[in-house]
Specification:
The chain has 481 residues and is an alpha/beta fold. It has helices at residues 5-11, 16-27, 41-56, 98-105, 148-155, 172-178, 212-222, 259-262, 270-285, 301-316, 335-346, 349-362, 367-388, 414-418, 425-430, 459-473, and strands spanning 35-38, 67-71, 109-114, 134-135, 138-142, 161-166, 181-184, 204-209, 254-258, 289-293, 394-398, 434-441, 447-453. The strands form 2 sheets. It has an 11-stranded mixed β-sheet, with helices on both faces. It is globular, with a radius of gyration of 21 Å. The two termini are 13 Å apart.
């Protein structure tokens, strides 16, 4: 498909049916294992024809005819929602997630559900019960996680937009590894209604697209208060939508460079560092000023995240017992055995590992030593950001310390895998928006993203910064729309 596909759709230079036909043909050979399930081709074609008729009649909605992919831990009608887990392999949701419904209301066409790390627990999309997602840039490498299927679908042009979820970096990290744009919104800015819970105080649904503009248009469609989500923010930011401010530039902005993210002790791969530095130079050339800032509690972020996230996961996943929810084991002699066998057969190793850790830190005698202390450190991390944002409009940082690694390379070393989240977990702990924007590729052709972080509700600022980086660092991709 053309790199200008979204612009061509809006201009009527190509039909939605032509785009859908190309996606249907390409999806028949999903060598990247990006999808868990796909909508019937006849239904997709009928929706595309409807979008073309609306456009011809001058009644096109903001996302009319856009093919979008939905991460398979976000509920949809008429397709299973498995969360990448055997325990939910046949689950069909009786309702649709608010974010998905808002995409449909804006005219988008859902083409399928994308593969992921089981229940969103992973950094490589290798823990899915249907097998790993492969990176379109190099099929022998991971796509990142946990929203790897959404990122891979975009990179392989199997969709023009996607939804992922981000609990500790799960939108941004795969976006970086696959060379697409991904946003983790301010906590509460996008409804979590219909998102299968992993860690409820950290989870956020986020938009992903091949371009900054595409991501901004998706975000504008899904953001906003929702009465069905108790954590949804009731305050709506003033001013135009994010897609309307992309041309405003960055002249006069002040951007902070965190010492803990960019210093010599940050474990950064040299090629990742050079691409992030190129992004910083692009912002400086566009008129932004840069200054060094400190986030002193960054070194505790990964440990804090894995205590809080696993504790919440232990509680959230208790419902999957073979009775109330989830796959039921056969040949159990009593209720206790039914619980044990159903969960043992239904959950994968990584999910079991996190449930055990979370149960431990919540147990009597350890709650104060681990979980309560982690919540106190979380407050310190949030205050670090608040202090930094008194001086700067946004922060620039790496997304991940390395480019995508080979499949299986880190699966047997959980600690090494967890450390891949070192630059992303802090944003979730603080509840602030953060995004990944492509910043070029390594000498091996592997994509690298730059992370932008801002204060709560600063998504328009992040999109303006991202657009400049995208234009300057991705000359070949800058026309994609």
């Amino acid at each position: 498909m053309s790199r200008d596909i979204l612009k061509e759709l809006r201009a009527g230079e190509i039909s939605s049916l032509e785009v859908i036909d190309a996606i249907i043909e390409a999806a028949q050979d999903d060598v990247f294992n990006a999808f868990v399930s796909l909508v019937d081709p006849s239904e997709l074609r009928e929706q595309a024809r409807g979008a073309d008729r609306a456009r011809e009649a001058g009644e096109a909605r903001p996302l009319e005819g856009w093919p979008v992919a939905i991460k398979d831990n976000i509920c949809t009608r008429n397709l299973t929602t498995t969360a990448g887990s055997k325990i939910l392999e046949d689950f069909e949701s009786p309702y649709e997630a608010t974010a998905v419904q808002r995409l449909r209301d804006a005219g988008a066409i859902v083409v399928g559900k994308t593969n992921l790390d089981e229940f969103g627990m992973g950094s490589s999309s290798e823990t899915s019960h249907i097998g790993p997602v492969r990176n379109p840039a190099d099929p022998d490498r991971v796509a990142g996680g946990s929203s790897g299927g959404s990122a891979a679908a975009l990179a392989a042009e199997l969709a023009l937009g996607a939804l992922g979820s981000d609990t500790g970096g799960s939108v941004r990290q795969p976006a970086s590894h696959c060379g697409v744009v991904g946003l983790k919104p301010t906590y509460g800015r996008v409804s979590r209604n219909g998102l299968i819970a992993y860690a409820s105080s950290l989870d956020q649904i986020g938009p992903m697209a091949s371009t900054v503009e595409g991501c901004a248009r998706l975000f504008d469609a899904i953001a906003g208060h929702d009465d069905r989500d108790a954590t949804s923010l009731a305050v709506e930011p003033a001013g135009p939508g994010c897609a309307d401010v992309l041309s405003e530039g960055v002249d006069g902005m002040t951007v902070g460079l965190p010492e803990e993210y960019l210093g010599e002790a940050s474990r950064l791969d040299p090629q990742v560092r050079s691409r992030v530095e190129a992004a910083i130079e692009a912002l400086e050339e566009a008129g932004a000023e840069t200054t060094s800032v400190s986030l002193p509690h960054t070194e505790y972020a990964v440990a804090t995240y894995y205590l809080i996230a696993t504790a919440e996961a232990s509680s959230n996943l208790a419902r999957y017992d073979g009775v109330r929810f989830g796959r039921r084991a056969e040949d159990a002699d009593d209720l206790a055995e039914l619980y044990k066998k159903s969960r043992a057969e239904g959950f994968g190793d990584e999910v079991k590992r996190r449930i055990i850790l979370g149960t431990y830190v919540l147990s009597a005698g350890y709650y104060e030593a681990y979980y309560e202390k982690a919540q106190k450190v979380r407050t310190l991390i949030r205050r670090d950001f608040e202090s930094a944002f008194e001086e700067v409009d946004a922060l620039v940082a790496p997304v991940a310390p390395t480019p995508a690694w080979t499949l299986g390379e880190k699966r047997d070393d959980p600690l090494e895998m967890y450390l891949e989240d070192i630059f992303t977990t802090s944003a979730n702990l603080a509840g602030i928006p953060a995004m990944s924007v492509p910043s070029g590729t390594t000498d091996q052709g592997l994509p690298v993203g730059t992370q932008l972080l801002g204060p709560a509700l600063s998504e328009p600022v992040l999109f303006r910064l991202a657009q400049k980086i995208f234009e300057q660092c991705n000359d070949e991709a800058s026309g994609r729309g």
